[in-house]
Amino acid sequence: MTVHSKLPQPPVADPVSAKPVVEYETLEAIFDDIRGHPLYDHEIHGCLNCGICTATCPSAQYYDYSPREIVQLLWTENLEGIYDAMHEKIWACAQCYTCAARCPFENSPGGLVMILREVAIKHELPSVKEVLRPFSRVLLKVVSTGNQLAPNMITREAFPDWGPNVAKVDAPLMVLRKAIPMPTMHTLDTAWEVNLRTSVELYTIWEASGVLKQLEQVDENLFDVVSDVMEEKRDEWEEWLEEQEEDDDD
Amino acid sequence: MAEDTEGKGAYRGFGADWAPTQLSETEARRATGWVEAKIDKRFLLTGKDRKEDVRALMWQLEREGEIVVHRVGEAQAPEMAKTLYGWDKKIPTTNLWHHKSCGQCGNIPGYPSSVLWIMNELGLTYLDETDQTSCTAWNYHGSGIGNVVSLAAVFLRNMHQAYVSAKAQGLPEGTFYPLIHCGTSFGNYKEIRGFLLHSAELRAEVKAILGKLGRLVDGKLLIPEEIVHYSEWLHVMRHRIKERQQIDVSNIRTTVHPACHVYKMVPEDVIYDDTVLNGDRVAVTTGLLQSLGTQVIDYSTWYDCCGFGFRHIIGEREFTRSYAIDRKIKVAVEEARSDVMIGHDTGCITTLDKNQWIGKAVDKVYALPVMADCQFAALTMGAHPYKLAQLHWHASPFEGLLEKMGIDWEKAKAEFETYLGEVKEGRIETLYDPKRAITSGPGHVKPPKSLQGA
């Protein structure tokens, strides 16, 4: 697959050198974060190596990826193997959770992959920025508005492989949007009109839950843009509240 | 053994370390048949132990004063449905708060507009408002940005807004009950509800955040009694929809693509019905299509995902389109001879609908219409295919399907193009009074003082 071929390669150990490429303490710190994740014990309970997860996994049919391998690496605490998988393999998972539905141990390999992704971001593994580069438009949209997709993101330029029929009626996008019989959807920049209070509250959630810090680790420029947008919205909200108080006094 | 493998290759698994099985074609077919007999059935999900109904824990926490439960009450005229293990699930049928899907609203808007239109036709009450975020879980599953605390805070923040939203109309809190449009939100919210109920630490973290936002009820977290997907609402309403059906669809061969996050996440909370494909398949959507009289065709890759992948549809579309075409569209056309594939989730409809055109590059042209169950149901009830079902946003060729249903799509398209001229002049038709959509902040019109204390 094209993106994977561009990924930075994880360091390869020198077979005649005793010195590890990655210090053992680093591997341990990464595994501690995985094992200490609040959902870790919920997602893994054991493994018989039966492979039903891999047999049913869509990504296993197209990538060098196996949910069975992910579970085995974690269950056997193979720190080097885990580190290696976190560079590329974890990003192949399609997050369908078919593996979880089928596992006789009620493991969730898909859930374990999410833990590994979170920890890969925390430790700023070099593959993370590369993998998430195409996702930056979605990140900007979701962090600043709470919507993850907007009508003006669906263009023929952005999705040339979707063909010429992205819209089968030829009219300006805003006219087509206003022809949707739901007033909340007469928008271009967001999927629906987002209340100012919603955005301000969401920003507080991002701040308090550490998501903004994650964003800064992945894309500092995006973080700066989002911070500016949200500060403006907060000011706007404060001004509106003050106006309301003045109106009430009147 | 292996007497007829020569020249046909061995049946191999995946990966360099896998060895050929050396099974003959007959043996491989028998082995596959055995697996399908087991794993394609509901047995796969019910044959496990350690299952609990988290709602029991929820009621206990409420008794202990830890949380407040937003009940599905008489105001919502609930209908009962049975879930995987035969447990009851209360499905509200009216006074619903629409928790919209950003993917549907941004990309396939006929999806939510069909739901609201059906509610209008059935004389039901609802609120579609601007004060809501998406669940943010598409982003989380795609990028890893986010965490259980942020997902839980977003979930309960939106649920709280649903609870208090009626105040803007001078009605009591709890009047409207959330109806989740998106499959990803539905799966995510159910999973997160379980984590919240099990973890006092998580509840404490989320409570601190929601306290700052003023989103607690009597100083406690508000948890919804049931988390309800719109396809579940359609399921319990299917007989009432059938009563209003205007178009005979008994000649239509339908295939269903069930959404992974709807029925593979928290499977014990998913509706099954022994009268719907022997109870081996999730009942929603299939039950509706059966009630409408279509020929629902089961097919061998029913259980597969669509290929959406969350991250893949944005950054690795080779996977998405290959999987969508080879594992779903091709099978539905060649094996099931399907006239239309019907789904019940945002990402699936987008993936299966948009990724067909590119098949021309490799001579894989299948041309299968793809739409949501609510759009199909609305069409059978006489909804306008463009003004209401908004099919012009779909890339797959739906015109032939409409002809088979006896709908003159060319006439309908011309009517819609005429209507666009009205829209340009500002004469816009809507499903409800736009003033209701803003419940706070700029643009909000307060109810009369006599109603504000309600």
UniProtKB/TrEMBL annotation, chain A:
UniProt xrefs under InterPro entries: 4Fe4S_Fe-S-bd, 4Fe4S_Fe_S_CS, HdrC_iron-sulfur_subunit, Helical_ferredxn
Asked if Nucleotide-binding is a keyword of the record, the answer is no
Q: Which SUPFAM superfamilies match?
A: alpha-helical ferredoxin
The protein's GO terms of the molecular function aspect are: 4 iron, 4 sulfur cluster binding; metal ion binding; oxidoreductase activity
Arranged from A to Z, the UniProt key words for this protein are:
4Fe-4S, Iron, Iron-sulfur, Metal-binding, Oxidoreductase
Quote the cellular component terms of the Gene Ontology held in the record: plasma membrane
Q: Where are the transmembrane segments?
A: none
Every 4Fe-4S ferredoxin-type domain range: 36-68
Q: What protein is this chain from?
A: Heterodisulfide reductase subunit C
TrEMBL record, chain B:
GO terms assigned for molecular function: oxidoreductase activity
Every Cysteine-rich domain range: 255-353
Q: Name one Pfam family in it.
A: CCG
**What InterPro entries does its record include?**
Cys_rich_dom, HdrB/HdrD_reductase
Q: Which UniProt keywords apply?
A: Oxidoreductase
Signal peptide residues are none
Q: What is this protein called?
A: Heterodisulfide reductase subunit B
What is the native source organism of this protein?
Answer: Rhodobacter maris
> Which lineage?
Bacteria, Pseudomonadati, Pseudomonadota, Alphaproteobacteria, Rhodobacterales
